[in-house]
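Class prep. Write one:
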Amino acid sequence: MTYHIITIGCQMNKADSQRIASFLETNNYSFSESIGNVDLAIINTCGVRQSPEDRVYGLVKVIRKKNKRANVVVTGCLARRKDVERRLKDQVDLFMPINQLPDIFNLLTKKNYLSRYDKERLVSGEKYLDIKPKHQSNFSAFVPIGNGCNNFCSYCVVPYARGREVYRKKTEIIKEVKDLIKNDYKEIILIAQNVNSFPNFPKLLEEIAQIKGDFWLRFVSSHPKDLDDKLIEVISKNQKVANHIPLALQSGDNEILEKMNRKYRVEDFINIIEKLRKKRPGIAVSTDIIVGFPGESQKQFKNSLKVLKLLQFDMAYISQYSPRPQTAAYSLKDDVTKEDKRKREEILNEYLKKTALLNNKQYLNKECLVLIDGVNRKGNLQGKTSSFKTVVIENKKDKKLIGQFKKVKIKKVKEFILTGEIYEN
């Protein structure tokens, strides 16, 4: 029996796909590169915007054209969308929320049976998180600490797609991390829809940072309303915690933030970033911003631009608002034109290039520790700094260095790429 997984979207989906692969392989399935003759095709979907959703419809058609006998499973964000189910019901065998993974075979055969996992744990997603993943890397690993979200941001489908927050036991998380470090993993990424709503997340982060070993510790995604002084203190005191934090602003206007149900004000967000930079000088900050949210005026958009200019982000993922069924914002009139959304996105991206280049110039002629993680299109090695900067290694193509920390002297900088040379053997 063979399987193939197509993963669309965020890091959480990538982590989920690693658990899906592990679960299938412990049940005598083997991975196949070809979709044309597999027994089981799984699409791990993203419904954050319309474009990844449209990709799913195209993929299902392609799979069915190439392989009529395969069982096709849709999981991820679109698995609970009734409109998606109606559209694909004749082409998809199973719409499966990710927390039902342990029951996939019985769900596929449509047997009316009682799972060996008790129903409460299955519905909560706790048992799915216990599945040991099949890591795609032997030096960098996602470690999910929870699933689901309680925030109900008005534009976001996650609480409907994944359900309410469920978190793993701290002892289980730490054991998984220790096993990874024992196996020489260099990068541990704690992941959840909202990592810092984990009960006493600063304590968890600190305990992991105290584990002996040569590794970096990252975490995504954080919600500004839950990033408190305790967490900032842990970040500032533990150098194993990577020198980068992703923190979504979403809008620089308080009225829009209220409509988004974000539960913080712009002033709160600015205060957090200023505290972080004071406590940990040089920390890189990336963010997410949505343009064209329903009712966003030109003045309100300019408020987002003001914050972008003030905080000088290293990276910002800027997206145009896309109405998502089931969300609260779906009932609002999508009254910002496509052209205005496009222009606003372009304006923010153009300014981002300036701040990113300015920040990167601070690395010029400096020595950086880089985790080599692959090769670029030209075959040169590349990697990431602790501050999550992409570094291309000039004239170095030895793939044996992938997965190792190397000191690199930065020779050139662009907006989103540093270039340098390894100066130690």
Remarks:
- The domain at 248-362 is CATH 3.30.750.200 (Transcription Regulator spoIIAA).
- Confidence is low (pLDDT under 50) at residues 111-125.
- The two ends are 45 Å apart (CA to CA).
- The chain has four domains: 2-124, 137-242, 248-362, 364-422.
